[in-house]
Write a structure and sequence with these properties.
The structure is a homodimer.
Chain A (H helix, E strand, L loop, with lengths): L1 E8 L3 H21 L1 E10 L2 E4 L6 H4 L5 H11 L13 E4 L11 H10 L3 E4 L3 H17 L3 E2 L1 H4 L6 H7 L5 E7 L2 H13 L3 H10 L8 H4 L2 H14 L10 E2 L7 H9 L3 E11 L2 E11 L13 E7 L4 E6 L4 H15 L2
Parallel strand pairs in A: 1-2, 1-4, 4-5, 5-6, 8-10
Antiparallel strand pairs in A: 2-3, 7-9, 7-11, 9-10, 11-12
Helix pairs in contact in A: 1-13, 4-5, 5-11, 8-9
GO molecular function (chains A, B): homoserine dehydrogenase activity; NADP binding
Catalytic activity (chains A, B): L-homoserine + NADP(+) = L-aspartate 4-semialdehyde + NADPH + H(+)
EC number (chains A, B): 1.1.1.3
């Protein structure tokens, strides 16, 4: 049986769901993948709980997120909080996304690669900031960086490009990669609402944040298509290379005009080969009825690959949920050893 | 750089498309996967052309399928037709599907496993007949059997189960796995045709065969769900375990009644956990508008996974085409070395 020791940085809802998943399925994974996964450290802003034999998930999974859970675990187990250090086999990076500097994730990932660990990243900041650099370091070290949780979580995106389309030429990718903006557009369409009313509805339902700019102005979608493109096409693009347009100017009248022809407005993040260049774009587009992305409703997501050899492949699902993001991280961990 | 030597058994349209693909992309695969793929043998009913240094694909790709192409290649290259023998690293099995005995595929696969080769099967017969036995032999030998081309070709089905849902619990699979019967149902729905008229249309378009029983009576779908289930749930089921019902009794009136409620009839192949059992079934079902499988039209296919951790994931695409099946085999070959 193989042993894999995991360190988690950042202990928010996704990290806690990950602990829950591992606690619940540890025995199943041993049986199915002949591998014992152990969490040896969790790093929060107040410090790191660390046990080389593995933290006791039967206790940890019942404690709250963040510093409270970490300090409760430390006192229950008589552990001294340590300063963060990277040891073990796999880093699961879950700190809050910081697009400006990529920190603290960027430092954690570099330290972990330095310590010969593989990386599974749920947070986007460090990757958006420096994916090509990090991939180069990983390659030199013979390590892997996986980040399904940072692209569209439970919706398979990178997997399809890497595994299911291996050997085929991808001509373009079009995705509905942000659940919040799709919820707003769906509400506008189905409820005949203005943008402002639909945004308010999303906020009331805890789907949109108080400051919804990251989602509605397209930046979150831009980050995701950037990571997909750099990962699948081995490009070295940055956010500055993407023309980004949000959904805030789509009007009730636009929406109704589209519907007359059976079409729908969707916020589409796309990557398309044009001659020798890869063009990335995020903008609201009118989707015709024959495009399967038209059926992506509410907080669901979808991705459509156009390929030379396999035609069009479209995948839909993976509504936004911390449990789905945690399962996406677990999937990446399992696929590391394959 | 790695070297992988391939033997192809059966030289029909899919095998020829496979040779075409490899001829066209050989250099690209060397660059992308650091692996040189060479076809060292092709086996047809008249014998085997074999060259340990690799057959010349620039010649082979221009010749016809079947015995004619094989004998033309032999005479152009001054080769003596040999009796089939399994040598090299990978067998790509493309002989016509024989559900009764699984032959000749079954013998070829067993001989190849005996010779320490991995198997990529496009034909279904041997797998439907003996997948659990073959998997056990492969396991004992440390070899792999992949068969994307035998389940739904370009549509990712096994990949999603194996890679994209790794670590998640699959509760059920529902698939539209047969393009011909879906074309017939789509024509009935959109053209308000009787089953007989729609079948005739499919035959006129070269989509349905003269004897369409395998497709319309559900047996082809049954074979595919059997292979998916035995592969993903590690079960040991046979065709006898599946209740199979075809589309031939769906009437014009049934179709119109469904459409009034926004529903559509689809031939659904399903695998569902019920207590400790896995229940397999193929039957025409009324699909409600909120199920993404309703949007699978014409010869397209689709598959929907319900999972505990990742919610519902649905993949649509992969219209039936020999090029797609060949690309699916190539994908399996590439994923073998990962």
């Amino acid at each position: 049986m193989k042993q894999r020791k995991i360190v988690i940085t950042g202990y928010g809802t996704v990290a806690k769901e990950f602990v829950e998943l591992l606690y619940r399925k540890k025995e199943a994974f041993i049986e199915q993948y002949h591998t014992e996964y152990t969490v040896i450290g969790v790093v929060g802003s107040i410090g790191m709980i660390y046990d080389p034999e593995g933290l006791d998930l039967s206790i940890l999974h019942g404690l709250p997120t963040g510093s409270i859970g970490i300090s409760q675990y430390a006192s229950m187990k008589d552990l001294v909080l340590e300063s963060p250090s990277m040891k073990g086999d796999i880093l699961v990076e879950c700190t809050p996304t910081n697009l400006e500097t990529g920190e603290p994730a960027l430092s954690y990932i570099k330290q972990a690669l330095e310590a010969n660990m593989d990386i599974v990243s749920v947070s986007k900041g460090a990757l958006v900031h420096s994916l090509p650099e990090l991939l180069a370091i990983a390659k030199a070290k013979g390590r892997y960086i996986k980040y399904s949780g940072a692209t569209a979580a439970a919706l398979p995106t990178l997997d399809i490009g890497e595994f299911s389309l291996a050997g085929s030429t991808i001509q373009s990718i079009k995705g509905i990669l942000n659940g919040t903006s799709n919820f707003i557009l769906t509400s506008m369409s189905e409820g005949n609402l203005t943008f402002e009313k639909a945004l308010q509805l999303a906020q009331e339902n805890g789907i949109a944040e108080k400051n919804p700019d990251l989602d509605i102005k397209g930046l979150d979608s831009a980050c995701k298509i950037l990571l997909l493109a750099n990962g699948l096409f081995h490009t070295n693009l940055t956010l500055e290379d993407i023309v980004v347009d949000g959904i805030e100017k789509v009007t009730k009248a636009d929406m109704q005009r589209a519907k007359i022809n059976g079409c729908e407005w969707k916020l589409i993040a796309s990557a398309k080969k044009q001659r020798d260049r890869l063009v990335l774009q995020v903008k609201p587009e009118i989707i015709p009825p024959e495009n399967p992305l038209i059926h992506v409703k509410g907080t669901n997501k979808g991705i459509l690959f156009e390929t030379e050899e396999m035609g069009t492949i479209c995948c839909v699902g993976g509504a936004s949920h911390p449990k789905g993001a945690a399962a996406a991280a677990m999937k990446d961990i399992i696929n590391l050893i394959r």
